[in-house]
Amino acid sequence: MSSKAVPGGTHESKHKRETWSTRKVFILAAIGSAVGLGNIWRFPYVAYENGGGAFIIPYLVALLFAGIPLLFLDYAVGHKFRGSAPLAYRRLHRRAEGLGWWQVAICFVIAVYYAVIIAWAGMYMIFSFTEAWGDDPEGFFIGQFLQVSENVNIGFDFVPGVLVPLVLVWALVLFVLAAGVQKGIGRANIIFLPLLLVMFLVLVVQALFLPGAADGLDALFTPNWAALADTGVWAAAFGQIFFSLSVAFGIMVTYASYLKRRTDLTGSGYVVAFSNSGFEILAGIGVFAAVGFMAYSAGAPVNEVAGSGGIGLAFIAFPTIISQAPLGALLGVLFFGSLVFAGLTSLISIVEVIISAVQDKLGLRRVPATMAVGLPMALVSILLFPTTTGLNLLDVTDAFVNNFGIMAAAFVAVLLLTYGFRALPMLGGHVNETSSIKLGRGWRIMVGIVAPVVLGYILINELIARIQEGYNEMPAWFVGVFGWGMAGALIVIAFLLSLIPWSSRSAATHPVLDAADTDPKEASR
Amino acid sequence: MSAAAIIMLIIAILTVWGGLALALVNLQRHPEDDTMMPEEHAPEL
To answer: What are the transmembrane regions (chain B) (predicted)?
Structure first.
């Protein structure tokens, strides 16, 4: 703790930063953020395709040696410098502000399409009662529900069945965010997260009692030890951990900035990380038990019906399962309800990154900041996605923002923090002041050497694949504009935003609380 | 299910949920400092 008197103490009442009431609320919100759609529909398939039961080994290695160390890095930056991503990075080093805005820009792109998937899941919860898809779930999803246009471009033919729930999703998310950190985000997670867990547990139990469930689990957990010799399998494990934990795109920096000064950061982080992985394992069991039943019903082996996860699993395979299973409507409500709640708590955290950044930069209060960010965002989301052309746009932006947004920003962040600003000893020291599990040289090696090597490897592989193969046979101009162009624009926008001066009312003029080894005058300049 | 699949299922559950249990125990052993409950500003100010 610093005993240094900080100048400008009169600013406190003006810039009082919101806080979580207890660390329990922070942990719940952080779990709510980490547990998202990817846990339910991505993890089971990544595991299945990359060694099955043997995948647990690279998965645990990735969790312990990259995921958790990077999570602590985010916590350290947010907690020490007590700001949204741009402010926290700016306080770390004036030239690092752009990195924060890059993360903010990434969150903007993710939020505008993520909301749409939640809207679909909400509609499918209702469809489950009547099994509205009849005997052709694929035709229903693509044709009747989304009315996907044959042309890959941008259009404004709105689909009311998606537009209306999407407006409701945005209204709910902005309502929660306008209520503030503790009363809005904290309370939403206190309600949604236990609800998600209970619904998902019932779903898993129901799925395990379906005929054929054991065959599904057999397919998921039978180890293929030869896979461990494949670097692609290891890259898949690191990629999964990385996307799943929501590290390196500003969320954990922002959430940690609302923690009180004396908080056990590492102790809390281990609970968050293992809860996230615990939920993934549970999802693997539930999803593959259901897939086993689908194979049983079709009289085919699991590998023929399994598909490839993602949107296809949720909106085509699961409706098939719901139609065939006993108590199918219940299964449907539980599954799509889980997607809705898992998605909402993640979307809230993604939008909060942007609101917090704008609030800090312009010195706005919570409600005006929520409106200034939320309304234009909702408008972009509502204009671009609930249309007959929205699915292709979603597909390409999702793929590119994940790989060339999140992954690239993380790569740059670990390199800059380790070698550019040499900040790891200072950040580790900050964490150690208040945490039960200490960070030492091991942590610095994980963040400074292991993480950049792995991230760089995955990034370069992805870059080569996209350049050589394009994306999903989509037209080159479309991938060029909404894939490459979008990913590049994020960097340019981040740079431009970092040039805008901070408002005199902004939090940047507020001294860094408790940052003993940062000169407050430097930070507020 | 094959024996190998059952063993890997058990290992996966034990390591991940066991890790969660250990993390929760560790957190309980380090209770939150009640004297530092919500504060307007850093305590040293």
So the answer is: 6-27
Please check whether residue A512 lies inside any domain of the structure. Answer: no
Question: Angle at Cα A300 formed by Cα A297 and Cα A305, nearest 5°?
Answer: 85
| Residue to substitute from B17, B37, B44, interface A, most A β-carbons within 10 A | B44
B42–A513 CB contact, under 8 Å: yes
**B41/A16 touch (CB, cutoff 8 Å), yes or no:** yes
Report ipTM for this prediction.
Answer: 0.88
Contact A349, A74 (CB under 8 A): no
Which residue in the set A3, A261, A436 is minimally distant from B30, CB to CB? A436
CA pair distance A342, A31, nearest whole angstrom? 10
- Count: domains in chain A: 1
- A45: domain CATH number is 1.20.1740.10
Is residue A521 assigned to a domain? Answer: no
Per-residue pLDDT of A390-418, as tens digits, reads 999 999 999 999 889 999 999 999 999 99
In a domain, A339, yes or no: yes
A467: in domain: yes
* Alpha-carbon gap, residue A221 to A363, rounded angstroms: 52
Q: Do B20 and A271 touch (CB under 8 A)?
A: yes
Sign of CA dihedral A8, A10, A355, A81: positive
Range of the structural domain that residue A349 is part of? 22-502
Query: A251-264, pLDDT tens digit by residue?
Result: 999 999 999 888 99
Check residue B36 and give its pLDDT. 53
Query: From CA A176, how far away is CA A348, in angstroms rounded?
Result: 8
Q: Which long-range contacts (CB under 8 A, 24 or more apart) does A432-435 make?
A: A433/A1, A434/A261, A434/A262, A434/A263, A434/A264, A434/A265, A435/A264, A435/A265, A435/A266, A435/A267
Which token pair is A498?
């970092």
Beta carbons of A12 and B33 less than 8 Å apart: no
**Chain B residues whose beta carbon lies within 8 Å of the beta carbon of residue A223:** 4-5, 8
Four-point Cα dihedral A77, A91, A521, A433, nearest 10: 10
Please give the Cα distance from A296 to A287 (Å, whole number).
14
- Tokens standing for residue A84: 């949204």
Tell me the C-alpha distance between A221 and A44, whole Å. 10
